[in-house]
Amino acid sequence: MEASHVAAPAVRLGRMESPGEDEIATPSDSITTGPPVFQVSDLSVTYGTHLALADVTMSIRSKAVTAFIGPSGCGKSTFIRCFNRMNDLIPTAQVGGTVLYHGEDLYGPKVDPVEVRKLIGMVFQKPNPFPKSIYDNVAFGPRVLRRKDGLDERVESALRRAALWDEVKDRLKTSAMSLSGGQQQRLCIARCLAVEPDVILMDEPASALDPISTTAIEDLMHELKTDYTIVIVTHNMQQAARVADMTAFFSVDVGEDGQRTGVLVEYDETQTIFTTPADPRTEGYVTGRFG
Known about the structure:
alpha/beta, ten-stranded mixed β-sheet, globular, disordered N terminus
């Protein structure tokens, strides 16, 4: 199916449990997290004539942290952008296969990508606060969605959940640009939380931060997964080992014509991926022999 660029009539996306879990292969039976939020089947992404990601099938469970690891160019960021249809914003992108969200096709003809992004928020690699006050950054989403009742309480709650309230409560009207890099990233997380998403996507959220700020972001992920499903792309294998319940390892296949295509090699509980992986390519990557 092609990535849509025209908003279709909105379909209300729910948070109910998904049927048909057995139709998609899942990792080992010892997983104790909730039912699948996403079920991905035979997903491929093409940019123009370049096949960037091929034939990915996996399910992502609720209230867990799932990490995507792998070398540069293996399609990790392309894949995570499929979950909230960010690839729709790239004119040459085409998405094939199926992505179900609580059993509903995210790429169905009546699904509005804007509605998708209300429930599936995203935090990017580089902190991107708006050139507004701290308060206005967090209040931006609720105002756009016309959720203005109890706005002060909503802003405070989001900042508390992002572990930032105590640091900024006395300067909410000051510019967000005055915050440190780590604080700006937590502010972006608070901005995401303020619209009450179901899922939080994080594309290398700590790669530009110092070790102390990175630890704060990782601690925050541990706290947030009690209420949210979190999917993270990271180049830092130690970070994946620390924060993730599940880990997917992606690699690159090089065709005879030299074209590089991302592929999912292995997906399992994080401890299994890092200690007893089933595929020698995974073992080679996590032990540092390649990648």
